[in-house]
Design a protein that fits this description.
single chain; mainly alpha; about 75% helix; TPR repeat; Sel1-like; TPR-like_helical_dom_sf; Mitotic_Regulator
Length: about 270
């Protein structure tokens, strides 16, 4: 009996020691990663990943996906994301879903992207919820279903996903899956715009230009187009140029000052 107990204790101690060693190797890799010493992180994590450590598998995917310290390799990234995703890691499922949606490192497959996004979305991943909404909105990998799109956008928005705010605004503006409601669209666009989302800023500018659900205001429209253009929405510069033809130099100057004030206040004072 004592021999059996001693043997069991030895096994338990051995397992505990191994667990501690794995944890230490993972933490060493994480510390190196945070210091941008990616090669050291890779050296620490690869053996763990090959042994099935899900966190190490996910981070190897990140390293190859972004080319951190190595040549960017989408195929290798997908390989490691797949391993982590198969163990239920929501972040890996989301990232692999993106790769299948866009055909990066894998053959483009919207149906597979839907599966992966849904798995991550069901675990509460807001980005996956938003992307799942987009695929339902556009009928990619699933039949087009506006109501289902709104459902997932709303779940993501409830978690503060800025892109979901913008997408919900669009659905209300167009009346897709919900009753058409300019006021509700404005609310969602403004929330996203004040967080710096360029597409929301452009759409908000357009609503001010047209007077949709709000008094027409060219200066505010110009201001939002200006901000959207600075944030990378190529449509906004054209909209701003066309709108400027209908404005006086004084109004344009005022709109530019408003845009500066909006930025300087970090979107706290935007007209």
């Amino acid at each position: 009996m004592n021999l059996i107990k001693s043997a069991c204790l030895a096994v338990a101690l051995s397992a505990t020691t191994a667990f501690v060693a794995v944890a230490q190797d993972y933490e060493s890799g994480l510390q190196a990663f945070e210091k941008e010493d990616y090669l050291t992180a890779l050296q620490e994590w690869r053996p763990l990943a090959e042994e099935g450590n899900v966190e190490a598998q996910y981070y190897l995917g990140i390293i190859f996906d972004n080319g951190y310290g190595v040549e960017q390799d989408y195929k290798e990234a997908a390989h490691w994301y797949e391993k982590a995703a198969n163990q239920g890691d929501a972040y890996a499922q989301y990232n692999l879903g993106v790769m299948f949606e866009h055909g990066e490192g894998v053959q483009q497959n919207y149906s597979r992207a839907v599966e992966l996004y849904r798995s991550a979305a069901d675990q509460g991943d807001a980005q996956a919820q938003n992307n799942l909404g987009w695929l339902h909105q556009n009928g990619r990998g699933v039949p087009q279903d506006y109501a289902e799109a709104v459902k997932w956008y709303r779940k993501a928005a409830e978690q503060g996903d800025t892109y979901a705010y913008t997408n919900l605004g669009f659905m209300y503006q167009q009346g897709y899956g919900v009753p058409q409601d300019d006021a509700e669209a404005l609310n969602w666009y403004r929330t996203a715009a004040e967080q710096g989302d360029a597409r929301a800023q452009t759409n908000l500018g357009f609503m001010y230009q047209q007077g949709d659900g709000i008094p027409q205001d060219y200066a505010l429209a110009h201001m939002w187009y200006n901000l959207a253009s600075a944030n990378g929405d190529e449509r906004a510069a054209d909209f701003r140029s066309n709108l400027a033809k209908q404005m006086t130099p004084e109004d344009i100057s005022r709109a530019q000052s408003m845009a500066t004030e909006c930025l300087n206040s970090k979107y706290e004072n935007c007209g």
